[in-house]
């Protein structure tokens, strides 16, 4: 029995695993040919008429066990590869000559020994695995350079010798991302061997043998159309991918062959080659940049259109580090990117790291060619149910054989065989594959009209069960553009000074701040196209540079600048209008990296001997870099304060060196930055997109959780999450922090502190919300700590987490995977840049891109707002429910027909070909194909469709419908035989078609109504689709079909009866009984299906069972465990120890009278390190918050610590002031504000969903906003963000 695979292990070794812990992990098992098994399998294939041969193509493991025997890997000729998703591949082991080629194992490099000239290998998913004789294992092939240190790559920049090039060509092959577009016959074979189409071939052959040509041709045509559609779509996608990803170009290569630089095709490159890089070059390999800097466009890889600066290995921070994609992105130019421009040179050199499918673009193509399988039960459930139906079909066949063999007179052998085999065609509807294709096509067309495009229509139904949606922040929830708010300078003695709105007004004492802002960036001139001197770079850096009004000059002569005595790639100076002699040279740059969360520039002022190292990045990161005495003591409080207003905060620091350039250049980056001094904070406004709050509220109404995963600071993320409505009003955010303690044994301390986003006094009693209302927020550091030390706690935090800040790209993927492991159905929406991994990891990934198709995610929306999520989920639900409805309809009509046929078999007759034709072609085909044309509703409902077709409701729906029809058919059969005019049918063996009978005529006509009734019953829509009558094709067809069947019921023309093989029923009253019986049948089915089954049962009993029965899904079990655990979480009492968030939202603002200007003045007290926030201002009730705007609010010049404000007549934009209405006007803080303070021209009212209450112009345009949150949400009440305010006329209705 072992040869059949029943003993997969036996005495053989367990499968070995490669690429452990990665998405490319595979288990491999060796096999060698077994001619004995081949002979037995060949005989079995002949005996089964080739059916076993077809089955062998369905599963690689079964095929190998039938033709090979297991062996050790060192002698195997076949390798069975099984990935982490259970997918199987059969790969051939080949040999190649590569006597001294480099092979790597676990990051170590070794050479194949000279005595083994032949290297054994196999290729799986475009990855080459070579045999390591010393380890007796296949290992993944990597280039020698990809495991070298940065210094080692730099030292090998002089090129390869010819012999080494030849050896590497044999091992690595041609540098080409070869995407095979299968031929039409190959694609046809892939489709035809599908079990569905195999059964259709069986059906068509059987019907043709029975001379049932018309419907056989129709099914054949539908199958051909379905297969052709799949083949065309597959070839189209493959052709588009090959056109986009397969290319070559001419490149200049430096090799040590004595001929100098050589121009050759990029297909000839091998790892280790040294290439010359030029402006405008499209890269076909991954290249380590040796010297200089390059501006590259990586949009094809990430979807990010902002140019990126890459710098050479000569500027590497730690040259001894082994090169790593995640750590050294700033030095690597990836395949698929375009060099927009080289900085400070006309050319540069680079060393090839990877070629072909080992490149970054190759990995992207592999993820498309071998996608993660759709982790959805829909199709597996289909196969399980169809397997059960086949068993029932065989049972019906056995019953049919018995009935036909025990007739008097007996039936012919041909009748017994054909009539029995024909029953199998009822239990598996042959039109089902075409039906599923049609549903997806309808849905894809509707999505395309709304500018949502998908890689494959099969993904659409995955959006139906989504119960949690994760969002990126910048560019997704908020706008892409950043507006510069102001700069908060920091003095040399470590105190924050008055904010500065105009960067040109920075005081002379803060020259280094201005110089740092003007030089710490990666901006460059883009010298091609219509705008030859257009500055390009990150929008944030562009805003700063434009505000400074500086000029940038790039030197590409490669000569030493005599003014500095060194190379100066970039010179920066104020514009001529400023009449300043200041000039700054940008000498060395460490571009921004998401892992480091900072960028660094080494600059020198003209005429100065000092070198200044400017560091710009996240405030938390710079705090760790700066010397403690050179940052303000209240740095954390100030940073959090600004972040809580939704501002994006960037810190700037400097470290000055009085040394020679050689000394500075020899230092590592960490040394250059050490003991820096904080120069100040730069504040940016990143407004929320107008559509965001409404879209989030729609998702919340549908009981879909929303999560933010961002690289921004925690405080900013908390503020944006609350202001845009991502965190619900009744939810209380709890900040999770970790601290590792202990010397020999490390212990992880986890603290939980309530995050407050509303004003509160020190003596206010803060109530902690019930456990249902607690949600968690954390940063990437906390996530990593808990993920390493406590996976059970990680699952709890992932389930209840709402805000994840300072998250790196790989951490975003981890969050998505954790949610999936908990059984959540996850959608991810991002801009396609750092979110690529997360978009692919989610069940539904949506990239907000401007193009119709993006390789970054399965779905692409041309609309940059998140409202596409609402539409996609609605469409996914409609598609999923349409799939269920069509499946139920197809199965029901098949079994209903089977019941009719079995009843007729009992009297030894069957429907004629014409009757079958009306059933199959006229009454069944059209509803099956157009049921999916019913569109999604306008609003996203609360109820989610079931994830599985095997749900008790769906099974009950099918079974109950069939039971009702079986009873109706039997009643019709019995009632017919009771009529006085009834004559018993006489069977004549071999007669085709059989003589017409009263039983057959009555049953077939009644079954016609049944098929129409089934289409009406199973097309019910609410709440997942629009009403079925909005499906105009289906409605028109049902009316036409009903009219046709009524005609069949009452018309008795001789030719018509002869064609239909009907017998004339002499009693017109009996015909009316058939019609009324069908009508009653419809009413009974509708009442049962819609009012009882999907009404009382679905809305009453099932929710009750869900509450009383034990939870099934992992996240439901975990949620129940959290609710019952009274010991977790242990939240720090906010009334004794409050998080910094609470302290900073003390009412710091107060209003005083400015005697000189006679205006109300906004003042703010200075913060100190003890967090003593005493103030005379009394807060207003927390349910009356709004933003006070108007030219009468000014910032007083004498205030010792103004946190944020405007000069003169500008508006205070980001500070919330408590506002309450009084009889004569309003009270803001402790000051009375008359109605005249609010002029119609300056008042900004709130837009939906925050209603404004306008008053008449006679009242001075005064208005009051009353948000009135529920009592439980008072502690978390926040005003709407500034982006929600629009200017309204006092007379305008809200």
Automatic annotation (TrEMBL):
It holds the Pfam family E1-E2_ATPase. Residues 252-367 form the P-type ATPase A domain. It is an enzyme of class 7 (translocase). Its main location: membrane. Residues 1234-1245 have a biased composition (Polar residues). GO terms for cellular component: membrane. GO terms for biological process: intracellular calcium ion homeostasis. InterPro entries: ATPase_P-typ_cation-transptr_N, ATPase_P-typ_cyto_dom_N, ATPase_P-typ_P_site, ATPase_P-typ_TM_dom_sf, ATPase_P-typ_transduc_dom_A_sf, ATPase_P-type_domA, HAD-like_sf, HAD_sf. The keyword tRNA-binding does not apply. SUPFAM superfamilies: Calcium ATPase, transduction domain A, Calcium ATPase, transmembrane domain M, HAD-like, Metal cation-transporting ATPase, ATP-binding domain N. This is Cation-transporting ATPase. It comes from Hyalella azteca. The lineage of its organism: Eukaryota, Metazoa, Ecdysozoa, Arthropoda, Crustacea. The gene is LOC108673294.
